[in-house]
Amino acid sequence: MIPQTASFGTQTVMLLGGGHAHVAVLADWVKRGVPAGVRAVLLTPERHLRYSGMVPGWIAGQHARDDGLVDLAALAARAGVELVLDRCNGLDPEARVVRTAAGEAIRFDVASFDTGGEGQAARLLGDDPRLIDVRPIGAFVDRLAALGPLTRIVVVGGGAGGVELAFALRNRAGATVRPDVTLAAGPGGLLPGFAPAVQARAARALARQGITVLAADARFAGGAIMAGGQSLEPADCIIAATGSAAPQWVRASGIAADAAGFLAVDAYQRSTSHPHIFAAGDVAARTDRPLVHSGVHAVFAGPVLAANLRAVLAGEAPRRIYRPRWNNLYLMNTGDGSAIASYGPLAAEGRWVLTLKHWIDKRWIAQYARIAQMA
Questions:
Q1: What residue stretches are annotated with the FAD/NAD(P)-binding domain (predicted)?
Q2: Residue 356 lies inside a defined structural domain of this protein
């Protein structure tokens, strides 16, 4: 059965996914109301968004497990948005129908995707029961929380996510003995794309904490985790921070996609082939400029997406463009009460950096808690 719009003449706008950009759209609808004459639906598999930036702090015992949650259900209820707890499993952009994992088909007039990408650890490394992909982040937290004591851990991925997780796991809360951690950073080494000063500080901090770094790709061979021809066994678990892959339904739908299969959007976060569809976050790829997949871009694109959806639903052309800053501030938790700051060519390190990171993270979470409680 295909759910229909509420009444004749009513438009249906669908938000697919409860990611960092869509919480800004929900906040806009709480504050200003859902656009007139519009039925709004949020399709997401979880009632909460887990903010990935606070997960390393939770692992190291600096936050409680649920401190980094945004209550999507409460925001949707406050905004008057219908909540469907399921995930997108297919899209027909011509018929304007989304199919859910449960097999339900939902019609829309305008849709916005912020579903994130998919984990690709098994495809890149091979399959092994000890392998835990960072994506999706909620499942990662659940699996990690269920593990008992860990003696030896391998982290795969030399980006900011892999580096932070290596630090966090070395300082895992509740561990009677600090686990040995090996970071298989890949041939690109530590923090590719970051300034040399940041890379140097991270390398020194990793060495200081006794974390082994290998500039080689990791892969399973004969049941063992290997990197550069070297066995990394024994290993209790292998954590993969190997980036995001495009959901298969994007390319299968026939909507415009980039070479990697991500949904292609223009400067307005609008599909380059279907102007009634928008996207932001890891599921999307900007065609007007290169933009790495990073939560910071999804956060800043959220208000732009909200404004453009409001314009299109009013029959107007989108006008807002997300123009990334020349550089963004990255704060990497080192798990031991300190953190490393990166801003373009500049780097800093210290307890004050971690204090700043905690303040920024908690403020971001708190703003949505306040919005969800608005009268």
A1: 13-289
A2: no
Based on the domain organization, do 142 and 109 belong to the same domain? Answer: no
- Which domain range does residue 296 map to? 11-45+86-118+244-324
Residue 363, exposed/middle/buried by CB under 10 A (0-12, 13-18, 19+)?
exposed
Domain assignment present for residue 286? The answer is: yes
Asked if 137 and 52 count as a contact pair (C-beta separation under 8 A), the reply is yes
Q: Which residue, 278, 293, 324, sits at the end of a domain?
A: 324
Q: Same domain, yes or no, for 128 and 237?
A: yes
In the block, tokens 């949650």 appear at: 69
Question: Strands 277-279 and 284-286, how do they pair?
Answer: unpaired
Q: Considering 216, 242, 268, which residue would you say is the last residue of a domain?
A: 242
Q: Which CATH number does the domain housing residue 210 bear?
A: 3.50.50.60
By three-state DSSP, how is residue 26 classified?
helix
Q: Where are the beta strands (DSSP E) in 93-227?
A: 97-100, 105-107, 110-113, 131-133, 152-156, 180-184, 212-214, 218-221, 224-227
Q: Answer yes or no: do 107 and 149 share one domain.
A: no
Query: Cα–Cα distance between 210 and 196 in angstroms, integer?
Result: 21
Which of 271, 282, 253 has its CA nearest to residue 97? 253
pLDDT tens, residue order, the chain (375 aa): 344 444 446 899 999 999 999 999 999 999 999 999 999 999 999 999 999 999 999 999 999 999 999 999 999 999 999 999 999 999 999 999 999 999 999 999 999 999 989 999 999 999 999 999 999 999 999 999 999 999 999 999 999 999 999 999 999 999 999 999 999 999 999 999 999 999 999 999 999 999 999 999 999 999 999 999 999 999 999 999 998 899 999 999 999 999 999 999 999 999 999 999 999 999 999 999 887 777 788 888 999 999 999 999 999 999 999 888 778 899 999 999 999 999 999 999 999 999 999 999 999 999 999 998 875
